[in-house]
Write a structure and sequence with these properties.
Helix content: 40-55%
Radius of gyration: 14 Å
Number of helices: 3
Number of strands: 2
Structural class: mainly alpha
Shape: elongated
Strand content: 5-15%
Strand order of the largest sheet: 1-2
Low-confidence stretches: 89-99
Largest sheet: 2 strands, antiparallel
Length: about 100
Amino acid sequence: MEKRAICPQPRVWQRIYGQLEAAHKQADDHSIPPPPSPPDMNIWLFSSDLEKELRWTETQEWAERHGFSDVLPALAEDEGYLGYGEGDPGGNPPGGGFF
């Protein structure tokens, strides 16, 4: 199984989250929940690739559901985190429910 981009790199994810937060605030619709937060570095280090992938998917689905998908940029090749995602044969530690 080959590695693939499963989510943004942490610094890129933080930037995207900031853009989603700004768009959410600008929408000023209190019925829309805030965007899912990205993992901080402590959580990142102890999360499996699958957990990272699921959290990114949750963020994408949130953006689509609430009309913010235009805020999500296409990731440049060097902005993606390479991992295995589902199945995670990369030997990452099992997640501890950090998200």
